[in-house]
Design goal:
Blueprint (H helix, E strand, L loop, with lengths): L2 H12 L4 E5 L2 E7 L4 E3 L6 E3 L8 H11 L24
Antiparallel strand pairs: 1-2, 3-4
Amino acid sequence: MTVAEEQQVLEHLCALPFSEVKMRGQVARRRTAQFGWLYGYESSKIEPGPPLPEFLLPLRERAAHLGGVAPAGERVDRGRGVGGARGVGRV
């Protein structure tokens, strides 16, 4: 990633609607922005959420390529390794 690309991603990240996380009545020391699925920390329920922002799609593709996996939650073929590291299990 170039310095210019990194700066552009950071600008987009700063504009995301991060919100506090509340678990068991306590506000956690973190803020999150959720995509794809929303997890209710108080209710433990999962429901559909907003899609991954467009600016993150190229980054997802690069990360998948570096990790040797399919992007976007696609399954890797059975019996094929999911990474190049030793000790990584089979899918």
